[in-house]
Amino acid sequence: MSTLESASTTSRLLRALPWLSGLVLVAGAIAFMVAVFGGSGEKAPLPPAATQAKPPPPPVAKVEKGARVAAGKFILTAVARKNLAESWAVTHPELKRGYTLAEWKKGDIPVIPFPVDAIDEARFKVDEVQKNMVVLEVALIPRPGAEQDATVFFIGLKALGTGSERRWLVDYWAPNANVPVPDDPT
Predict the structure, then answer these.
(1) Is the CB of residue 157 less than 8 Å from the CB of residue 134?
(2) Hey, what domains does the chain have and what are their CATH numbers?
(3) Do residues 53 and 84 lie in contact, with contact meaning Cβ atoms separated by under 8 Å?
């Protein structure tokens, strides 16, 4: 082979090299897609639902019966503005600080009211439980046709006393307000 023929063959190879590289790249991409996504067009059957792994439900913290009873009684009395003398007995001293029983019974108290007669359902979710403290979220859902919107409240309870003298009292009641975070003004 002469030098001229050799230079011509090299020149052709150099011109064809990008095309050959492109073909190798496309072939590699096709091989990759077939390997990853399958090439038969058939989908592999999914395992039966019973064998699919389901995440375990989150553990439910144990709320003492006395705390649940006090929360319910507080909602049906202080929140409802009914039988306020009964609500006094399940209200923690911190929440009723500055009030006498006589003032409390007038109903002008630091507890946001809700028309409990309109409630169709109350759902409780445990937010936090400690030895002497419980925080619950309470969704008060009105019956269909009621003019009241559903509202979610936080209710906090603290335990006072020990042994048979231990009792749960409500020390916090406030709506679960979603406060929007302002956009960065810059």
Answers:
(1) yes
(2) 65-175 (3.10.450.50)
(3) no
Q: What is the CA radius of gyration of the chain?
A: 35
Using a 10 angstrom Cβ sphere, with 0-12 exposed, 13-18 middle and 19 or more buried, the burial of residue 35 is: exposed
- Distance of alpha carbon 29 from alpha carbon 31, whole angstroms: 5
pTM of the model: 0.64
pLDDT in tens, 57-87: 666 668 999 999 999 999 999 999 999 999 9
- Three-class SS of residue 102? helix
Q: Encoding tokens for residue 136? A: 């619950």
The CA angle 161-166-167, to the nearest 5 degrees, is 105
